[in-house]
Amino acid sequence: MSQEALTPASLGFLRVAAVAPELQVANIRYNTRVIIDSLQQAAARGCQLALFPELCITGYTCADLFYQSLLQQQAREALLEIAEAAGEAQIAAVVGLPFEIGGKLYNCAALVSDYSVQGIVPKTYLPTNNEYYEERWFTSARDCPLDVIQLADQTVPFGTDLLFSALNFPGCIMGIEVCEDLWAVQPPSGEMALAGATVLLNPSASDEVLGKADYRRGLVQQQAARCLAAYLYAGASPGESTTDIVFSGHCMINENGIMLAETERFHFSTQMAVADIDVQRMNHERLRNSSFSAALPNQSYRNIPFNLPMGAATAEAETLLRPDLSPTPFVPANPAQRARHCQEIFHLQAVGLAKRLKHTGVTHVTLGLSGGLDSTLALLVTQQAFEILKLKREGIVAITMPGFGTTSRTLNNAEQLAKSLGITLQQIPIKEAVLQHFKDIGHDPNVHDITYENAQARERTQILMDMANQIGGLMVGTGDLSEMALGWCTYNADHMSMYHVNAGVPKTLVRYLIEWSADSVYSGTTAEVLRDISATPISPELLPLGENDALLQETEATIGPYVLHDFFLFYAVRHAFAPRKIFWLACQVFKAHHTPAEILDWLRTFYQRFFASQFKRSAMPDGPKVGSVALSPRGDWRMPSDASSALWIQEIDALKEQLDHK
Question: Which residues form the CN hydrolase domain (predicted)?
């Protein structure tokens, strides 16, 4: 097992900057100094790549000055100086300049790295409908017959068919399109993405008019999502000429539709957006997206291999710059977005159950109501499904089944909730039935082992199933996605139902759904009870209580915090990250609450339970998918029930060995 140090780059993260430099039109010396200063600042922040705007070396608004041979020559010399400075700063960069070839002038973007110009990409689509009629000065890339040019003592690849592959960064392939190319009906970046480019770069000089920033932002976001790629956009700064139009220095870094960083507009000083893009994640997205992997580019591309600088080793470089990295990836951080999210999930669950009831013609259901999180959510969803179908609430038969570990708090909450919602409530204690069962199978009731616990769970499921038959209804399941992932359910007990409404909802989201219901759907007594349920410790309540009705069994003390397990689940299933990457990410977001050793221990628990419990998921009942992670064996997750976890556990062991030697 490799003992490679865990760093952002080793885990597939590429730190990038999109820069709008302060400039002076046609003052190449000044602009070059600013670009080099910006490169040094970006490198000091751990960036490996920096993107600058279109024609940034000269300024975009030089107009007829582009014809001046002095300007052209100085721009070429400045490019070589920038390449040398980028090499010294250990960063790669894309800069824009005019380039004369064969008596024609091209609007170009050049990639520099490792002290050299790696390639030059000319602009294809030249705008003709704004104040800067580019066809007056520049020729489209379509009309250039050359595929290499001579620059000082370098032979440099030239053309729109260049893809730049980082030899030392697996999966990092860069494609460049210039400004207006993105606005085309078929942007070149789409073809580049199909040919393998995961990082798309657009040096631009889009001017500002009312509403254009939102349109531009949407265009970048859509293209990044469509291409399953990172899209970097660097716009010309307000330092450009304002003879007729104004520029704002709008820079964006977007990954697969997620805006990671964006500059404030209309600043004369240099503005820089910096973020870490996950190249490994994008390659996985493409791997699992069959429509993307089946498509083929219409154009062939030349692969230009180069060495990508690995970035400066600074404390800041070790801190991941991703606004989407959250300790609760299933739960949006923004309150307004979270509310919309909860409402949408609630409707998905309710409509799923309503369709099953409508199809079967059933007007009654049974549901085990414990006063805990999961059964409460299942009840609220069931009530909503009955509302959709205009069925009487009395057809919802909630059954409380107090056992050896039932607390007065949960039992009282179950009763209060059922009463406030106007549903049918029955109480069927299970102690005597379970004791008889222990007697039948010869089990000592003083031995509180797995038999002791599971017998109670199976007795409850038997009651619910038989009562469903008795009333001609269906039994609604209450378990959630996190429990199915960890196997924290009794096979053929709470593992089973006739429709599993919470199958796609992780534990961390269940609590938010109940809190949202209390705040946005219900009021009065119902809302008060829901808030108390949300604050109740998570427990199966299967072991006897302590003194004064004290709860002695809490789930998270046994299997670990659900906030950690849901984090592990999201990145292990949704993005197929290896344990080392999940561990490193978890250390980033949970460092205030858990030590690396604790995180690693619970990560081991997650993988051991996840692999060992697949047989339960292989037989799980129907239930609605509500998010990007689902474990149904008929849909998103198909895994052998007897797959070995050895490969993943070995990597965790190697991580533990590294941790112990620190």
Answer: 14-279
Q: Does residue 587 have a known ligand-binding role?
A: no
Residue 489 is assigned to a ligand binding site: yes
List beta partners, residue 120.
110, 158
Complete DSSP assignment for 471-497: HT-EEEE---HHHHHHT-S-TTTTT--
Model pTM? 0.92
Give kind and range of the element (H or E) at residue 662. Answer: none
Is 132 labeled as ligand-binding? Answer: no
* The pLDDT of residue 1: 41
Is residue 420 a known part of a binding site? no
Single out the residue of 531, 462, 523 nearest to residue 492, CA to CA. 462
Say if residue 520 carries a ligand binding annotation. Answer: no
Contacts of 28 (CB under 8 A, 6+ apart): 57, 58, 71, 74, 75, 78
For 433, phi then psi, to 5°, come to -65, -40
Compute φ and ψ for 617, nearest 5 degrees.
-70, -30
Give me the amino acid identity at 51. Answer: L
| Residue-level pLDDT at 543 | 66
pLDDT digits 0-9 by tens, 177-235: 999 999 988 899 999 999 999 999 999 999 999 999 999 999 999 999 999 999 999 99
Contact 596, 659 (CB under 8 A): yes
Please give the pLDDT value at position 264: 94
**b/e map of 269-285 (b: 16 or more CB within 10 Å)?**
ebbbbbbbbbbbbbbbb
Burial class (CB in 10 A: 0-12, 13-18, 19+), 96: buried
DSSP for 594-657 reads --HHHHHHHHHHHHHHHHHTHHHHTTPPP----SS----TTTT----TT---HHHHHHHHHHHH
Report CA torsion sign: 257, 258, 261, 262.
positive
Amino acid at 496: M
Is 370 assigned to a binding site?
yes
Query: What is the number of other CB atoms lying within 10 angstroms of the CB of residue 268?
Result: 11
620 close to 637: Cβ distance less than 8 angstroms: no
Report, as ranges of residue numbers, the positions in the chain whose pLDDT lies below 50. 1-2
Kindly report, residue by residue over 327-357, the tens digit of the pLDDT: 999 998 888 999 999 999 999 999 999 999 9
Decide: 118 and 112 in contact? Cβ < 8 Å.
yes
- What DSSP string describes 350-393? HHHHHHHHHHHT---EEEE--SSHHHHHHHHHHHHHHHHTT--G
Q: Answer for the pair 521, 653: CB distance below 8 angstroms, yes or no.
A: no
Q: Which residues are catalytic?
A: 54, 123, 179
Q: Which residues contact 487 (CB under 8 A, 6 or more apart)?
A: 609, 610, 612, 613, 616
616 is in an annotated binding site: yes
HEC assignment per residue over 158-186: ECCCEEEEECCCCCCEEEECCHHHHHCCC
Q: How far is CA 282 from CA 188, 193, 255, in A?
A: 19, 11, 8
Order of strands across the sheet that contains 116-122:
116-122, 104-113, 92-101, 49-51, 13-20, 271-278
**Tokens 């798309």 found at:** 200
**β partners of residue 397:** 366, 424
Nearest by Cα to 204 from 226, 180, 183:
180
- Check whether 424 is labelled as a binding-site residue: no
Query: Residue 448 corresponds to which amino acid?
Result: H
**8 Å CB contact between 20 and 56:** no
- The response to whether 206 counts as a known ligand-binding position is yes
Per-residue buried b or exposed e for 4-20, using 16+ beta carbons within 10 Å of the residue's own CB: eeeebbebbbbbbbbbb
Rounded Cα distance between 627 and 566, Å, is 13
